[in-house]
Amino acid sequence: MSSTTAMTALEAELAALIVGALQLEVTPEEIDPEAPLFGEGLGLDSIDALEMALAISRKYGFQLRSDDERNGRIFASLRSLAAHVEKNRVG
Amino acid sequence: MADIPFLNRAPGEILARRGARPVTAGEYLADVAALAARLPGAPYALNLCEDRYLALVAFGAALARGVVTLLSADRSPHRQRELLARYPGTIALADGVETVIPAVTAGAWGRGGGENFDLPEERVAAIGFTSGSTGEPAAHAKPWGALVAAARSAAARFGLDDPEDGATVIGTVPAQHMYGFETTVMLPLRAPVAVHSGPHFYPVEVAEALAAAPGRRVLVTTPLQLRALVAGGVSGASAVISATAPLSPALAAEAEARLGAPVLEIYGATEMGSIASRRTIKGEGWTLYDGVALRAEGGEEAAALVPGLPGPVPLSDLVEIGADGRFRLIGRRGDMVKRGGKRASLAGLNRVLTEIEGVQDGVFIAPEDLEANPAARLAALVVAPGRTPAEIVAALRERVEAVFLPRPVVLVERLPRNAVGKITRRSLEALRDTLADGRDG
Fold first, then answer.
1. B chain contacts of residue A22, beta-carbon cutoff 8 Å
2. Does any domain span residue A18?
């Protein structure tokens, strides 16, 4: 794909979680870690956001919030989501 | 024609809660007056506010200036331009979202003052939109009298008309979706409730709002959100109201048990507003709001006669009307599909699909569980030599709402059209089953 950088272990784990939770038609490896998750890129919608929030809270033990500005950044890409998970994960 | 006051609240009553801070009806009127004074003359105002209190202030300010509010939960630049083209002179009232049309920033700038005012009941206060059968949005004008009558009926139906109660409404639905508009904007204007400004999208935000609100707490949500809230362990509501799609009895029972509160449903549509309710675990029959009547139109089709609306409004669902006046939903009229509180016509979607450059033929397929299962989506079978599924989705994205984007897009050599070029119901069902097997396996 277009990305020049490989996925980290956490990014790969999150990619698999997203593809599984949302039943996406791509393989986790096909997700560009720097492409937007919503709109362009993967084309996720707000229903997907809720599903993702549930899956993330189950696996990583913290809750997503819709604090606009910050959320825009969280879902900017798989990479930014992974950074947010890394910072907030419990245990 | 009679005049009806804009606000039906005493100045000292709490009308909203912004976080922990209560806002009285008097303070609200001051905020409305302050924003109204900043509005340029305009025929229409597109209310884009995400903060529910600011959406309420923006609606009031528009009314005070005789400006018609356009309600669109879709805030995208594309939608803003589309509405401006259709309603020349429109200004946006926004609180942070990116605007691409002339805009005024909405805020709570009241410093005292602000008077209540009267509005003629036939005045169009707001216009809501649905996806029409052709795929182009259809407009539905809402006279002030109809909005007031619906709010009054809802307050009576849900026991929210007791000033001693001081209920707080916590909504997960956008204020610009007709259901969210009725329950979280019109209701606090007409009934003794306080609306929480939000945001309430993720379960933790709803949990915190429920924990912080004093008195009765009414959660206004959707089946998809409710499922997430139950899974997220949210509790503490006094009553739950759900709408936009029928709630499964199993989810309703689980939500009642987990939340310890009755789970009620509203039946309605953008073009007619809310017209009936039920408590899901008590059976599938819907009880009409006071003043609303259903008129059978032959077969299983019906139209609603709604106070304040000029003519009967056809229901998009097929219904069976019982001897007791209650009704059951038995299917959807025509080829409409519904997801995430939005409706679209399959024929309209197919037309958009086949207009894409390089697409020779194509058809959208709706799974049977589209409304009940959050993981269910539309799929599309497409004949487009040389094009990829990703390109087709990218082209669709410009014209189709995200919730209706197909997943998967399957490229095929041809579609099973019969001698007259139609895809029969039977072959569509076979295709749907094949796709469903792929999804489950």
1. 375
2. yes
Phi, psi of B149 (to 5 degrees): -60, -40
Residues of A in contact with B231 (CB under 8 A): 54
Instruction: Indicate whether B349 pLDDT > 80.
Output: yes
Q: Whole-angstrom Cα distance, residue B303 to residue B311?
A: 9
Q: Is B232 on the interface with A (CB under 8 A)?
A: yes
- Give pTM, 2 decimals: 0.85
What is the total count of domains within chain A? Answer: 1
**pLDDT tens digits, one per residue of B223-238:** 888 988 998 889 999 9
ipTM of the complex in this document: 0.81
Q: Do B204 and A44 touch (CB under 8 A)?
A: no
Q: Given B96, B405, B408, which is nearest A68 (Cβ)? A: B96
Q: To probe the interface with A, which of B407, B410, B440 has the most A CB atoms within 10 Å?
A: B407
Tell me the H-state helices in B260-324: none
Whether residue A1 is contained in a domain is answered as no
Q: State the Cα–Cα distance between residues B113 and B182, nearest whole angstrom.
A: 27
Domain boundary assignment for chain B: 3-332, 336-440
For residue A51, which of A69, A24, A31 has the smallest C-alpha distance? A24
Average pLDDT over residues B200-222: 92
Domain B3-332, what fold? Rossmann fold (3.40.50)
Q: Give me the CATH number covering residue A71.
A: 1.10.1200.10
CATH hierarchy code of domain B336-440: 3.30.300.30
Token pair belonging to B83: 């509405």
Query: For chain A, which ranges sit under pLDDT 50?
Result: 1-3
| pLDDT exceeds 70 at position B112 | yes
